[in-house]
Amino acid sequence: MRKSKGATEAEISKALTQWEKNYLGVGAVAVKSDILRNMIIVQLDHVLTPAEYSLCKDKDGMLSVKRNRNGLVESGIEQLKEIIFKITGEEVASFHTDISTNTGERLMVFKFAKNLEAQFS
């Protein structure tokens, strides 16, 4: 039986939470994934540690945290692409990510060559 869009989004959220815990050693407090046209947009809340929030109080610390956190995620991109492929059956064409040092929220965007959302119509 084919999975629904909601079930697929939930599976992505669960898998990325587990990846964060295994690969980065810490996980987000909450994760929400949305399939929209040719993208999967993932919102991960409260991913920074208390020490990182403290570092973010000045510009140099903020830039350091952003650079380090983005570098860590980028170093695991092949694993992330494999997770998404196993769940969707589609190859990721490109990946984009950024983190807010104010809120501790990370956004991940997985882009595909074709409209992934159309599979659920």
Overview of this protein structure:
The mean pLDDT is about 95. Helix 1 packs antiparallel against helix 4. The chain has helices at about 5-25, 50-55, 60-75, 75-90, and strands at about 30-35, 40-45, 95-100, 105-110. It has four helices and four strands; from the N terminus they run H-E-E-H-H-H-E-E. The chain has a four-stranded antiparallel sheet. By secondary structure, it is of the alpha+beta class.
Instruction: Enumerate how many helices there are, as a single number.
Output: 4
Q: What's the shape?
A: elongated
Strand count, sense and barrel status of the largest sheet are: 4 strands, antiparallel
Query: Residue-averaged pLDDT, rounded?
Result: 94
SSE string, helices as H and strands as E? HEEHHHEE
Radius of gyration: 15 Å
Order of strands across the widest beta sheet? 1-2-4-3
Question: Could you outline the blueprint of secondary structure elements for this entry?
Answer:
Layout: H1 5-24, E1 30-36, E2 39-45, H2 50-55, H3 59-75, H4 77-88, E3 94-99, E4 106-111
Helix pairs in contact: 1-4
